Amino acid sequence: MTILKILQYPDKRLKRVGVPVENFGPEIQKVIDDMFETHYATPNCAALAATQLDLDIPWHITVIDYTQDKKSPFCIVNGKITYREGEQNEYEGCMSVFPSQLHEKVKRAQKIKVSFQDRHGKPQEIDASGYFAKCIQHELDHLDGYVYLDKLHPIKVERILRKIKKIQRQAKKD
């Protein structure tokens, strides 16, 4: 397995839309394995979408495991939210957007229903709520070409962009 590079904002590749998976053969299985390997090797990582990674083809795949023991791998391929209910407004971070320095409140549905395929192509449906629902929505946004900053008010984004520039300047000095 291989640890993949996680793209960092403002890399234009973070705007790519996930390519639907049609063939669930060895190539896709290796991508999923590499995604989990990268996920587990990244501190404080709850989930990753293929569009966040330095892949030639950004497949419509996300891997999730936010458990302490990291023994509950969950993979969503070609996922679509089919139902939303309620609202939560919680802090989020992102492995692609200065994860140790930036966290902002993002409005998401409290409960969702998702139809998807598992890593072998078998159709599935799941109900999710709370943190799990937030993770899925965050990752499916990535697969649609969005980062969580895109959900924020423009004035807040402007403030965050100034903070990012400051972080980048400081990193160059160090």
Lay out the secondary structure.
Elements: H1 26-41, E1 47-49, E2 61-64, E3 74-85, E4 88-92, E5 104-108, E6 111-117, E7 123-129, H2 130-143, H3 154-173
Antiparallel strand pairs: 1-2, 2-3, 3-6, 4-5, 6-7
Pick out its properties.
174 residues; two-stranded antiparallel ribbon; alpha+beta; 3 helices; five-stranded antiparallel β-sheet
**Cα distance, first to last residue?**
32 Å
Instruction: Name the beta content range.
Output: 15-25%
Count of helices?
3
Mean pLDDT: 95
DSSP E strands, number: 7
CATH architecture: Alpha-Beta Complex
Structural class: alpha+beta
Order of helices and strands: HEEEEEEEHH
- The quaternary organization reads as single chain
CATH H level, superfamily name: Peptide deformylase
Q: Given this structure, which CATH class is correct?
A: Alpha Beta
Task: Give an account of the 3D structure.
The protein has a single domain (12-173), classed as Peptide deformylase (Peptide Deformylase, Alpha-Beta Complex). The strands form 2 sheets. The protein has a 5-stranded antiparallel beta sheet with strand order 1-2-3-6-7. It has a two-stranded antiparallel ribbon with strand order 4-5. A hairpin with a 5-residue loop joins strand 6 and strand 7. Helices cover 29% and strands 25% of the residues. It contains 3 helices and 7 strands; from the N terminus they run αβββββββαα. With 174 residues, it is of the alpha+beta class. It has helices at 26-41, 130-143, 154-173; strands spanning 47-49, 61-64, 74-85, 88-92, 104-108, 111-117, 123-129. It is globular.
